[in-house]
Specification:
about 180 residues, alpha+beta, Aminopeptidase, 8-stranded mixed β-sheet, 8 strands, globular, Acyl_CoA_acyltransferase, transferase, acyltransferase activity, transferring groups other than amino-acyl groups, N-acetyltransferase, GNAT_dom
């Protein structure tokens, strides 16, 4: 673990601000087609895509005071994922995570997400935490429900240009739903 005050320890995870030193393992995770079954177009096909993505995420720490962490198990140096929250131009926190498929099904996404929501509430509590999840991504929808996030139904996601469920930590008045039934 680092002495960085932005780092967080959970029961099983060590979360440190993402940086380019984690490029190789994060590219491997983001290039794995198994991790992108719900959204194949989002897969990182070349390391340059992952590099640019990490640089943007790392820059958000300075700009916004909070961004994505690199995820490791507390007792191992291996990178198992990335996640956290970022501010959006719509004035909310967007919850995001991507874990190595070898570590799915162990509750790490929920544990990481709890830490991210907690950090968002400490940093800018007036802003809602949102997760936009594709209807067929049952794993992420289950995580959102375990976190106690409210499903506001389907609406058109302007970032992805497709229909998604909006989960939030509080009521959200301006969600553009309702959309087609899931």
């Amino acid at each position: 673990m680092t002495d960085d005050p932005r780092a967080v320890l959970t029961e099983r995870l060590a979360l440190t601000p993402v940086h380019l030193g984690d490029l190789d393992p994060l590219h491997r995770i983001n290039a794995d087609p198994g991790g992108w079954a719900h959204d194949p177009a989002g897969r990182h096909l070349v390391p340059a895509t992952t590099r640019e993505w990490i640089q943007r995420a790392a820059g958000r720490w300075a700009d916004d005071g909070l961004s994505y962490w690199t995820v490791r198990l507390r007792d191992a140096p291996e990178v198992i994922g990335i996640g956290g929250v970022q501010l959006t131009g719509r004035g909310n926190w967007n919850l995001f995570y991507r874990l190595d498929t070898a570590h799915w099904g162990r509750g790490y996404a929920t544990e990481l997400s709890r830490a991210a929501i907690s950090a968002a509430h400490r940093h800018r509590p007036e802003l809602p935490v949102l997760a936009m999840i594709l209807p067929h991504n049952q794993g992420s929808r289950a995580v959102a429900e375990r976190l106690g996030l409210i499903d506001h139904g389907l609406g058109f996601d302007p970032f992805r240009h497709e229909w998604a469920h909006l989960y939030a930590d509080r009521p959200v008045a301006d969600w553009p739903g309702p959309g087609p039934s899931a």
